[in-house]
Amino acid sequence: MSATELLHRYLGQCPLIAIVRGLTPAEAEATGEAVREGGIRIIEVPFNSPEPLKSIELLARKFGNSMLVGAGTVLTVEQVRQVKEAGGRIIVSPDTNPDVIAASAEAGLVSSPGYFTPSEGFAAIRAGATSLKLFPAEGASPSVLKAHLAVLPRNIPLMIVGGIKPDNMRPWLDAGAAGFGLGSGLYKPGQSPADTLARTRAYVAGVRQ
User: Fold this and answer.
1) pLDDT tens sequence across 93-133
2) Which positions are catalytic?
3) What structural domains and CATH numbers belong to the chain?
């Protein structure tokens, strides 16, 4: 299965990505189970979390093909290699580093780099990006997204990240968003699995309204 097919498979089940920044390996499996039970099928552990590779390994082993597991805040080619070795299958970056994007594509991994302008978006696509992440969305708007989609290829899913809440997704979807990355609104370090489950369900209900 290609990276594009892989991403579409999981986005088709639920167009949300859980960003569990600050997750520890001891919390990984229980938190992942809460996210999965709540309905989200993609989870990323940012590199600026404690022992992110260990958490990715635990999540990938536990959930196999039932979830798409990977890393966020990926900044180097070496980190791409480490994520793949840990069993991760999606690489999310805050920037459009062409070396990281190309390394992800060459490894057969989903590449979702952050961008903010059409120029950055096209540069990422040329490097091999599977999807694009409009970040930080707090500095943009659905109108900006709609303008971007007038020129960016429609076959590249465009995810919205930053400031997303269960009740503010509809304008972005109407403008053409393919989905959303959910950070502190979904998960904060030390949060209980029960709280994570409740927040996940609220977001899933919000995106399906």
Assistant:
1) 999 999 999 999 999 999 999 999 999 999 999 999 999 99
2) 44, 133
3) 3-208 (3.20.20.70)
